[in-house]
Structure formats: C-alpha cells, structure tokens
Specification:
This protein has six helices and no strands. It is an all-alpha fold. It is globular and about 40 Å long.
Length: 139
C-alpha cells in the first residue's frame, strides 16, 4: 500500500461519506443482485442499520490505512466472525465487485483508474487478512 494509494482512497472516501446512506443502499442492492443467496447470511432485516455498520467499518479502515498495524487485529477478528455467519471465500469476490461498482456509481468521474486500483488494493489487503484468520479458525 503506497502513500499515493492511501491518499487516493482517503480522498475518494471523503466524497462518499456525505452520501454514505445512499452508498450503502447501492452496495447492498448490487450485492443481492449479483448473488441473491448472500441475503440469507444476514441475520437482520434492517438493512439501513446494516448499511450504517458497513459505512462505519469502512470509515475506520480508511482512516487507519496509514497505521494498518492498529486495525489488523480487528480485521482478523472480523474474518473469524464471518466464518460463523457462513461466509465463504467466494463471497469476498462478490462483495468486492459490489463495492467497486458502488464507488464507481457514487463517485462518477472522480473514480479514476488510479483510484479504482487503490481501492482494489485496499480491499484485497483487508480480505486476504480476513480469509487467513477465517482459515485459521476453521482449521
């Protein structure tokens, strides 16, 4: 994760934050469109609250990108919890696709190829950490 990538993610996130409720709705709409079966993984029907949680987690992650060591334990714990929810490795790809689509839709022309690449890098780093922790729990 380069300093330039961190800056791109943080600057683009600052533009998403004011529209976070809409972004969350777009995200879950796209996620369930891509894979309707993942809806059964959610134990709540309150998707607005789930969206607020998602945006809060993303906000925390984005704000800590320049000090990753402070959030890695939380990311690992989240990966372990996701095992109990029934999340499989392939779900991470679908979530990533929905996230990138949401950012592109919300940011429009501000979602440049460089910004997209930076977000993919962050998402890959987070999900790889979660997957390793999930595999350790499952073992």
């Amino acid at each position: 994760m380069t300093p330039e990538n961190i800056t791109l993610v943080k600057e683009s996130w600052a533009k998403v934050a004011p529209i976070s409720e809409t972004a969350a709705e777009l995200f879950y709409g796209k996620l369930f469109e891509l894979d309707p079966s993942v809806k059964s993984l959610f134990k709540t029907n309150d998707m607005k609250e789930q969206g607020r949680k998602l945006m809060a987690i993303l906000n925390t992650a984005v704000n800590a990108l320049d000090k990753l060591d402070t959030i890695v334990p939380a990311i690992q714990e989240m990966g372990k919890r996701h095992v109990d929810y029934g999340v499989k490795d392939e779900h991470y790809d679908t979530v990533g696709e929905a996230l990138i689509w949401t950012l592109a839709t919300g940011l429009k022309d501000d979602f440049t190829e460089d910004t997209k690449s930076a977000w993919i890098g962050v998402y890959t780093l987070v999900t790889d950490t979660m997957k390793v922790a999930a595999a350790e729990k499952a073992a």
